[in-house]
Amino acid sequence: MNLRSVDIIIILVYLALTISIGFYLSKRASKDIESYFLGGKKIPWWILGISNASGMFDITGTMWLVSMCFVYGLKSAWLPWIWPTFNQIFLMIYLSVWLRRSGVMTGAEWLQTRFGHGKGAKLSHLIVVIFAIVSAIGFISYAFKGIGKFAETFLPWDLTPDTYAFIILGVTTLYVIKGGMYSVVFTELLQFVIMTIASIAVGVIAMYYVSPETLQAAVPEGWDNLFFGWELDLDWTGVIDTVNDKISQDGFTLFGFFFMMMLFKGILSSMAGPVPNYDMQRILSTRSPKEAAKMSGIVSLVMFFPRYMMVTGLAVLALVYLGPEIQQSGEIFDFEQILPYSINNFVPVGLVGLLLAGLLAAFMSTFAATVNAAPVYFVNDVYKKYINPDGAPKTYVYLSYLVSFLVVIIGIGFGFVIESINDIMQWIFGALFGGYAAANILKWHWWRFNGYGFFWGMMAGLISSLLMPVVMPDLQPLYSFPFILIFSLIGSVAGTLLTLPDDEATLVNFYKTVRPWGSWGPIKQKVLEADPDFASNKGFKRDMFNVLIGTIWQLTLVVVPIYLVTKAYEPMTIGILIFFVTSFILKKNWLEKLEN
């Protein structure tokens, strides 16, 4: 694609602006380690929430969502549950409050409040650091594949996708490492504004070019139906025959079974709490537990509508105008290229520059948040804790620069050997995060669970998630979740019951401070003996009801923009009504009852 001068100018101005912000904020960020990683816990909750939403609005995920919307239609609204997107609802309703009450800097440091300072606690500390770095490397590899494919289509030089990715990651790393959390948050605000404008514009363009009748002729029966049975029942024969091969390759033919697996894995992963990445970092950066909950709530509110305007717009344009070409060629098509194709052919001059800047912004947001979150676990939880506890603040910041750089280099190395976005995405969210679930559910809800159990549970989950693609290469990553869960659960329970309980004083302090619900009977009794006025958490039923309502609320924010772009106004109206009803319930039963 040959970009026009105005588009190139917009992109260059944007890149210059974001890098300038990073360097401008570097003085404030480098004051000390808390300023570098958490912004000094002074950034307002709504800014952190928008920043978090921007960090999730990534180019690689957007390319995947566009390909899923193209193939699966309205049913693609369920597919992000593989991550799962509704984990934000669990965080919003109660887990962000529980997590923020600790007042610590990282997820690994948080473990001290739960397991104390013994050998088991140190082992649990170590395994979280390892998991955080492995997941950060995985995310960087994921971003690497997406930006390479994207750049190859739009940039004019004759370079390979991996070469483009290497160059762009280098530029992004420069401003992220220098500016820390301040840089990440405030550039993400800029990026979110650009992305929102560009996304809505793409949706409007699709509505202008594609009528409901034209779209209906370009898709199979059932494409516009949100609901499903045991089987997918979406036959592309005679429309785009090769899409049937794509569905079979994805492993989604038995969609009902796949959905149950997503729901099963998603609920357990959500109850475990956030993995040690940028999501957790935003929660710990808020000024209070109440603000942490509201920060998690605003993520869904601001992210899904504009994102799905773009996703649906690009998918619809490709279906109508690219679909016949794919069918005529009869060749295997890379569906992850639908996003750049649609931009290349349907977005006007000027808006192309804005949209490309927005997509670069989306990529840079996710990448920046990941890179900023990773080194804190090594610097704060290994180097500062065990190697140099009395180092100068500048020493920790400079070491953070080095660790960030090394994590990026390793992530790029893995990116060179990964073949597709779908492969790495499904491994991260289906297998790797599956190994996180068992130990992290137990840490919240079972008093007897100790640091040894956490270590062995996490170790079993991490090892099995790394070995599963080798031992069972043809197994859909999500379907490996039960096996990984069982291994992790065995490690968690055996490691706990074969060792002594954690220090009682630590457990009492944790329960009194965090006030989780679950199996805490003996510890609750100890707290009440010391403080008869202590009010335990009786909010389980209310929290679960709010999670159900919140998940429905979040789903409306996905389907309403899809219905809008496809001009399905009757189901869109129903979706809007459900959104307002669920919003009212959440306001009365969640927001007004939040406490610090």
From TrEMBL:
PROSITE patterns linked to this entry: NA_SOLUT_SYMP_3 (PS50283)
Which positions are tagged coiled coil? Answer: none
Write out the annotated subcellular location.
Answer: Cell membrane
Membrane spanning stretches = 6-25, 45-66, 78-99, 120-144, 164-185, 192-210, 252-275, 296-322, 349-374, 395-418, 424-442, 454-472, 478-500, 544-563, 569-586
Q: Name one Pfam family in it.
A: SSF
Superkingdom to which the source organism belongs: Bacteria
Alphabetical list of InterPro entries matching this protein: Na/Glc_symporter_sf, Na/solute_symporter, Sodium:Solute_Symporter
- Keywords per UniProt: Cell membrane, Ion transport, Membrane, Sodium, Sodium transport, Symport, Transmembrane, Transmembrane helix, Transport
- Note whether Acetylation occurs among the keywords: no
| Topology within the bilayer | Multi-pass membrane protein
Q: Where this protein primarily resides, as one coarse class?
A: membrane
**What catalytic activity is recorded?**
L-proline(in) + Na(+)(in) = L-proline(out) + Na(+)(out)
On whether Ligase is a keyword of this UniProt record, the answer is: no
Give the similarity note.
Belongs to the sodium:solute symporter (SSF) (TC 2.A.21) family.
Name of the protein this chain belongs to = Sodium:solute symporter family protein
Recite the lineage of the species. Bacteria, Pseudomonadati, Bacteroidota, Cytophagia, Cytophagales
